[in-house]
Amino acid sequence: MSPEALFAPSDDVVAKTHVNATQYEEKYARSVNDPDGFWGEQAKRIDWIKPFTKVKNTSFKWPDISIKWFEDGELNVTANCIDRHLDTRGDQVAIIFEPDDPKAEARHITYRKLHEEVCRFANVLKGLGVKKGERVTIYMPMIPEAAYAMLACARIGAVHSVVFGGFSPDALAGRVNDCDSRVVLTADEGRRGGKSVPLKANVDKALEDCPGVEKVLVVRNTGGDVAMKGSRDVWWHEAAAGVEAVCEPVAMNAEDPLFILYTSGSTGKPKGVLHTTGGYLVYASLTHELTFDYRDGEVYWCTADVGWVTGHSYIVYGPLANGATTLMFEGVPNYPDAGRFWDVVDKHKVNIFYTAPTAIRALMGAGNQFVERADLSTLRLLGSVGEPINPEAWMWYHKQVGRERCVVIDTWWQTETGGFMITPLPGAIATKPGSATKPFFGVQPVVLEPESGKVIAETEASGVLAIADSWPGQMRTVYGDHQRFKETYFQQYKGFYFSGDGCRRDADGYYWITGRVDDVLNVSGHRLGTAEVESALVAHPKVSEAAVVGFPHDVKGQGIYCYVTLMASETASDDLAVELRNWVRKEIGPIASPDHIQFAPGLPKTRSGKIMRRILRKVAENDYGALGDTSTLADPAVVDDLIANRKNR
Ligand code: WT7
C-alpha cells in the first residue's frame, strides 16, 4: 500500500458531519479572509458575562509581538464547562473515571456532581487565601480530583500550573519556583500499572528547595502512609468537611491568564507557556467539537495525562465546554496486559478514542490477540497526537482497532498552540496515512526555506513549518519572560510564528510533519530538550562534559543517546553508565531515562569549540557512513573513537 493512499470519508460520516468538504473550503476561506467576522461568530458558542466588542488584535511584526483576542469580553471558564450545562444535562455523566486496577470500581461523575465538587474545592482554595491571578501548582495523579483542582482554580481566577506526576522532585521544584506558587495541590500517591507513585513524598523533597510554598493540599487517593508536615500540609477531605458546595464563578477578562504549562525548548530550562481565558476556551471547544465531530451523548476518551496540554484542552476544557462525557484513565496501556485500552473501550462503550503513536506502536508489537479479543463496535473515530505517526502504525490502528470502519485522524499541534492546528476534519478531508492533512479554521501554515526564511510559494514544498497569523488558542507569552517568548518563536523567521518542526507539503496541499528541527527530542510523545538532559548529566560530580542527541526508536519514536566525557580521575564502566542513567531519572524523571550512554574521551568540536551535533546524531543513528565534512574539526581522530565505541549497532 502506498503511503499516499487516500481514505475518503464514508457517506455515513458525511451525512452526519458538522463540516463537509464544501463547508470546509468556504469556512476556511472566510476564517482567513475575515477573521473578525469568523471568530466573532464562533465565539458565540461561549457564554460571556460581558460581551466583547473587539475580536482580533494581534501582531507578529517583529519586535512588537502582541496577541489579544476578544480583549474587552468577560467570562468564566467553569461557568461554561459546568454551570451552563446544569439545566439541560445536570444528570449526564461529565467524567467517567477508570482506575488503574481493573477490579476497582469505575466512577461516574455527573455535571451536577462536578459542579458541587469544583465549588467545594474552590471554597477550600479561597479558605487558604488563594487570590485571583495567584499561581497554584497541581501535581496529581490521573484522578477526577485533578480536574476538580484545575477547574476550582479557574472558578476563582487563580492560574494553575499542572506538573506531570512523572516529573522528579527537582523538576517540580524548578516549576514551583518559576511561577512563585504559594499553594501546591497533590495526592498521597498515584497508581500506574499496579505500582504506586510517591507524589506526596516527591512534593516533600521538592519543597526543600521552595521557600515560597506555604500550603500543601493533599488528596487521599491510595490511602498509603504519608508524612504530613505540621501547619503546612492539609488533607483535602478535612479541609473540605463542612465547606459549602456553592461558589460563584469570578468574572475574568478574556485575556486574564488561565494556566501555565511548562514545556521544553532547545535551550535553557523549561518555559512557562501561558494561555489566557477567552480565546483559549473558544478554540479548545470548537476544535474538540469539529475535529472529533463530537455528537451529544457520545463517550469520548483521550488517553493523555492532564499534566500535558493534550489533557488540558482535550480531557478537561474542550470536552466539558461542549457538555461531553470525557473518560479519565489512571493507568497505562499494558497493565494488566496489552489489551487494557480495548477492554476499557468495551467496558465504557467509548465512541471516540484519542492516543499517541508510541502507544499504538507498543500495542502493535504486543500482538493482535489483545485487540482481537475485544468487540470495539462502539468506536467511530480514532485520533493520534504527539509525534509523527508512521504509515504502518496508522494502518494497524485503522485495521485492527478501527476494523476499517472508523475515521482515523492525525492531529498536529503543540503546547504553544492551545489546540489543533493541522488535522483532518472527519467529514471534509480524505486522509492519507501519516499526514496531518490540512489546516484548521483560521490557521495559515507556511513552509519556509530553513536558511533564507523565504516562503515557498509552490504547493509542493519541503522546509520548516511556520504560521502566518494568530489564532485564538495561541499562547500569549512565556510566564515572566516575554523577551524569551519573542525570541523563541518570532525572531528567527520575522513575521511568522515558528513551530520548531520540519514539514513537507505534497501536491494536494497536504502537510506531513517530519519532526523537530531544533534540539528538542520527542520521546514517546514527550517533549524534552537535549540541553535539559545535558545539564542533568554535567551536574553529576564524575561528569565533565555531555552531549545528547536523539536517534530513531521503533516504539518511542526517538530514543535518548548520551555522549559523556568523564572527569580525568574517573574510569568508564557499565556500573557508572547505570549510575548516570538513574541520576538523569532522578534529576528530571523516568521519561528522560537515557537509552544509551557512550563514554567518549572527547567530543567532536570545531576549532572554535562548538560541538558538532550533526556528527553525534549520525553516529547515534548508526549512519556514520554519511558523516559529511569533518575537516573543520579540531581533532578529527575523536570521530574514529566515537564510531568504534558506538552503542546503537
Ligand atoms: C511537538 C509538540 C500538542 C500535542 C502533544 C505534544 C510533535 C505533536 C504531532 C503530530 C507530528 C507531532 C511536534 C510538535 N507533534 N503532534 N500529529 N505529528 N508531530 O505537545 O509536547 O508541545 O509537543 O510534538 O514535533 O512540535 P508538545
Automatic annotation (TrEMBL):
Q: What is this protein called?
A: Acetyl-coenzyme A synthetase
One GO cellular component term of this record is: cytosol
Q: What is its EC number?
A: 6.2.1.1
Which organism is the protein's source? Pelagibacterium luteolum
**An annotated Gene Ontology molecular function:** metal ion binding
User: Which HAMAP family does the protein's record reference?
Assistant: Ac_CoA_synth
Q: Give every Acetyl-coenzyme A synthetase N-terminal domain span.
A: 24-81
Cofactor(s) needed for function: Mg(2+)
Question: What family does this belong to?
Answer: Belongs to the ATP-dependent AMP-binding enzyme family.
What is its biological role? Catalyzes the conversion of acetate into acetyl-CoA (AcCoA), an essential intermediate at the junction of anabolic and catabolic pathways. AcsA undergoes a two-step reaction. In the first half reaction, AcsA combines acetate with ATP to form acetyl-adenylate (AcAMP) intermediate. In the second half reaction, it can then transfer the acetyl group from AcAMP to the sulfhydryl group of CoA, forming the product AcCoA.
InterPro entries found in the cross-reference section: Ac_CoA_lig, ACAS_N, AMP-bd_C, AMP-bd_C_sf, AMP-binding_CS, AMP-dep_synth/lig_dom, ANL_N_sf
Q: Where is the AMP-dependent synthetase/ligase domain?
A: 83-468
Keyword ATP-binding in record: yes
- Report the top EC class in one word: ligase
List residues modified as N6-acetyllysine: K610
AMP-binding enzyme C-terminal domain ranges (all copies): 532-610
Reaction(s) this enzyme catalyzes, per UniProt: acetate + ATP + CoA = acetyl-CoA + AMP + diphosphate
Q: Which sites bind ATP?
A: G386, E387, P388, D410, T411, W412, W413, Q414, T415, D501, R516, R527
